[in-house]
Amino acid sequence: MNGEDAWELGVGRWEIYFGLVLICTVIYVLAGDGSWPKGAVAAVLLAAMVPWYAAFGRRAIGADRQGATALVYVAGLVALSAGAAAATPESALVLFALCPQCYMMLNWRTAIVAVVLLNIVPAARFLVGSTGAGAIVSFALWTVVVITFSAFFGLWVERIINQSIERRELIRQLEATRAELATVSREAGVMAERERMAAEIHDTLAQGFTSILMLLQAAEPRLADDPGGARRQIGLAVRTARENLAEARALVSAVPPAALGEASLDEAVRRLADRLGEELDVDTECVVSGEPRRLDARSEVVLLRAAQEGLANVRKHAKADAVAITLDYGAAAVRLEVRDDGTGFDPETASGFGLRGMRERAAQVDGTLDVRSVPGVGTSITVEVPAS
């Protein structure tokens, strides 16, 4: 709509109507039986309405109603039409085009006054030249009917204009709201992507660097007394660094986790368990039950990240002697449990990024996270996701 009010889209039709009525009036005036000089004067006054409309009328229609431009334009119309009507009565025909314009440019009450002023000279001329009470009464009744119809027509036009203005304002507000919502949605998307990347980095790179640091620190005091053990620790650190590099490349390329690759989920979980056992020299057990199968990519990532986070917590905090991982492929759901016999903690007071990230990841695939831990006894972290 290009910001135009609905009623403004019909202005071109009103201009055509105005032009046709004006041309017909001029022809009617010049073809009348009146004296030629008076007809010429009336025709000139009528023709003057064209530049007057071009100078003021067009701007008045597009401006605020009841503005100075509209008042000046209507006042000029009253003067020109009064002069033309005084010269020849046939000029009153143009009022069929001028009266609607008053309602388009002025408010209803002011427009009625303008319509009355437009009709004063033609009415006065008729009354002066009329003979007989019957003609005067007939004219009076006809005038009342015309003005009444004009008033109702003007009220209808005003309501259309007001509704159109309200609609324009509503559209403006809706467009502003839509722009605000788009901005909020874009910001929310950026924030969600930042949180996703933060969770990915925490679950992969940060844990990998922690593992590398712990392995190198464990290798340093063994360099003199146990070179073989130190080399084994350093070898694990190198392997972890390579895996971290692969994870970083996967994050940059937005591909599935490097730990999965072409391997199945149960194979990837077994590798995680074996590596933890090598790093910490603790008993690790990985049990897979049910029939292993490929899951939705997002579900596999959730379970893999849960296994990584659970084992990272064992590595950093648990001080466990034994760790058990269970991966159960059920008919309706797949459940992963990471269990240790370490120091444990109070789940009610835990507020780490890792647990929050696991809970949010599980929720994204309609899964659940259950954390059970008792200080001094151990910890059990269970993630369950739908099988399909």
UniProtKB/TrEMBL annotation:
Major enzyme class: transferase
Domain Histidine kinase: 303-388
Record InterPro entries: HATPase_C_sf, HATPase_dom, His_kinase_dom, Sensor_HK_TwoCompSys, Sig_transdc_His_kin-like_C, Sig_transdc_His_kin_sub3_dim/P, Sig_transdc_His_kinase_ChrS
Keywords, sorted A to Z: 4Fe-4S, Coiled coil, Cytoplasm, Iron, Iron-sulfur, Kinase, Membrane, Metal-binding, Transferase, Transmembrane, Transmembrane helix, Two-component regulatory system
EC number of this enzyme: 2.7.13.3
GO molecular function list: 4 iron, 4 sulfur cluster binding; metal ion binding; phosphorelay sensor kinase activity; protein dimerization activity
Domain of life: Bacteria
Primary location class: cytoplasm
Cofactor(s) required for function per UniProt: [4Fe-4S] cluster
Transmembrane segments: 12-30, 36-56, 68-88, 108-128, 135-157
Coiled-coil zones: 160-187
Reaction catalyzed: ATP + protein L-histidine = ADP + protein N-phospho-L-histidine
GO cellular component terms, A-Z: cytoplasm; membrane
CDD domains in UniProt: HATPase_UhpB-NarQ-NarX-like (cd16917)
Keyword Lyase assigned: no
Places the protein is found: Cytoplasm
Role, per record: Member of the two-component regulatory system NreB/NreC involved in the control of dissimilatory nitrate/nitrite reduction in response to oxygen. NreB functions as a direct oxygen sensor histidine kinase which is autophosphorylated, in the absence of oxygen, probably at the conserved histidine residue, and transfers its phosphate group probably to a conserved aspartate residue of NreC. NreB/NreC activates the expression of the nitrate (narGHJI) and nitrite (nir) reductase operons, as well as the putative nitrate transporter gene narT.
Protein name: Oxygen sensor histidine kinase NreB
